[in-house]
Structures
1.
Amino acid sequence: MTPRHDPDGTRLPVKLDSTSNGEYAPLPLEPVHHEANVRAFASAGENAKRLGLSRREFLVSAGGVATTLLGMNEAYAAAGRTGGFFDLPYDAALDLALARSKLDSADFIFDVQGHFVNPTGAWTKRLPETAKPLQMPKTQQCGPSKGPGRLDYLQCIGPDEFVKDVFLDSDTDLMVLSFVPSTREGEPLTIEEAEVTARIVERLEGTHRLYIHGRVNPNQKGDLEGMDELASRHRISAWKTYTQWGPDGKGFWMDDEPGLAMIEKARKLGIRNIAIHKGLAFGPKSYEHSTCADIGRVARRFPDVNFLIYHSGFAAGKAEGPYDETRTDGIDSLVTSLAKAGVKPGANVYAELGSTWRLMMRDPDTAAHGLGKLFKAVGPDNVVWGTDSIWYGSPQDQIQAFRAFQIAPALRDKHGYPEITPALRAKVFGLNALKIYPVPKDVLEKHLAKDRVAKLREDYRERPDPSYLTHGPKTRREFLNLRAWGA
């Protein structure tokens, strides 16, 4: 496989690779992706020389990002994929001020899906030897090597790397920590451990920067009863559930008995945001429960509950095209479900982009149709930003790629998709999330700009040192190893 880095360890700032978040098998790169990486490296070397910079210095700059995205444009266009594109002038590759004007922004960014695991948690003691987390050379882990030795992989997805990837190496202002499906005994991250990371950020005076989900699998004994304790002991901002998951491998619909019981308990407890994993199927077993067929039904039945559709129903490895009412999975399943139930845009269903946008970046046609359909179906005020980081490393490349992406005019005219304007991007990046995760006005206007996290970020960016690493599984072996953890 063509690497996305040179033998000297230099990596591209936009991570076009096979990394998965662990919920779907890694997708090998296609020839067009290899071509995009090759074009980007060749151009980066030439542009660095012209500007008198080392390749590393150039790639860390906005010019390096622009060069990479322009290389992707060229490769996609050569392959006939022109439904969307990264809207950057060619001069941005050499004019760093111009590149910054296109790729940097003061947008408020609220990432509603972040992850990490506790690298020393009790769950690790229960793993079979065949599923122990892999150890790899330090040079492949968590940024530049500081010396010889080996580093446990889990350190790369723990709280320290999380804080650096999210709050220093990216423009993210706020994040919601979410959870993976698991048995109660096998959680790779418990809510208590999530709050430890929140306190790490609080010690940096970033008191309001992390929000936390409460994990509920209502088809698992004890979870419905556990909602009361979660709500009383923790600052729960939403409930997170996985309808395809079950302790016996069988999922459920949100309007089945377990789903309805969960909704009613959420209403009773006054936490009426329910984040539901839809799409990114775990496998063929209970596949139907990974689709969005039930979302319109429950949204209409419970207009006082916000249903946050995590991943928007996107099916990994399957392209998105114009809306097809006969398709039963993917984003089309969400569109159909809402239409059948008469749930209008701007109602109580929100489409979240974690992993979805990252996978869409591999195919501008899929990105154009996927985003266009979501903006039409749930409305421009109900699409919310998420990245599934830190499985994909720092989310900065996803942020910068979205800042530049545009749906081709021909597709907008033919299908009624909107132009992605700065105002629409600002809504997706953070303003829409404020409707479901309210943040006090004084925090938005004063605290975020002046806390210690902001100062650390400002100082760090005088000499940034991003790793451009991804941390999720990249091969089937790594994926199966992660799956064996019980996640």
2.
Amino acid sequence: MIDLAQQLPNTTRPISWEVVPFEPHPLLRNGHLQTLAAAWLTGTNTEGLSGSQHIVRLSDGDQLAIHDNEPESWTPTDPVTVLLHGLCGSSTSNYMCRIAGKLNDRGQRTFRINLRGCGDGQGMARRPYHAGRSDDLAAVVESVRSLCPQAPISVVGFSLGGNILLKWLGEAATSLPDNLTRAVAVNPPADLQVCTNSLATLWGGFYDRHFAKLLHQHALETPHWHGYLPEDWSSRRPKRVLEFDEKLTAPVAGFASASDYYHQCSATRVIGDIRVPTLILTSRNDPLVPVSVLETLPLPESVQLHVAPSGGHLGYIGRGRGVDPDRYWMDWRVIDWLTSETPTS
């Protein structure tokens, strides 16, 4: 480990990154359509993404699974990227597989994380994942570092995973691995209270009910969590994410309440301490994360914020082939950032 505070001029030097403007598909001009279309249109070539699996043991005894995809051309000094999914996602989420495949095509080794109890890690964790599990990310990166000690490491977090990433980068700013070179957070709900409140007002609470249903179903399918569930939850599911967090996430994770959880785990509290070159990518019409959450933050020199005029939440489905090889604008901006040169002077 190195003291990044002593390396401030090097770690905060801006990356040479020029964004290609986003032009939405003509049939997907609003944020809701972008968000919903992204959930249904996979655009994923999973060939070659079987890879190998590693189990990471966490400090409290829980475990999670990560998927390792190593291109044949990869050497021990070539780059590595760690990918972290969002709420109700997994290592097989569309955006995770798409971007991993594209990075593999460019010679980068990738590690796709399953947060606690998600994907192939279901049944391995007694405690649920949540937006503040930055210690889990630290454990995964340390595991990746032990596997690839000579490789420069980048981390990309999507939605809830983006908040976890930003929280980790800020709170551990002076003790991060010395080969962690850059990061990307896409549509991060950096103020959890604001974002949760916003869910209840959108489309008559459609998103709120949708995520509450998925979280409830996931809890029922996880035997380790049954002892924490209210007695009537098998027949009456929570109607809001707030209710789920109040009755399950907060008490099981050791928070006094959902409000306490949101306060302690929101990345907004520590973003100003980030020293690793970091891109925050979001859209003005994201229906889940109000753009004001990110636009009003005082950002350090190491963090660049790009707000696309459209794109929804993890959508960014463009007109089609043009400057980019396919319509997934988000994928290519992430890759641009991860592969751009850092100025030497």
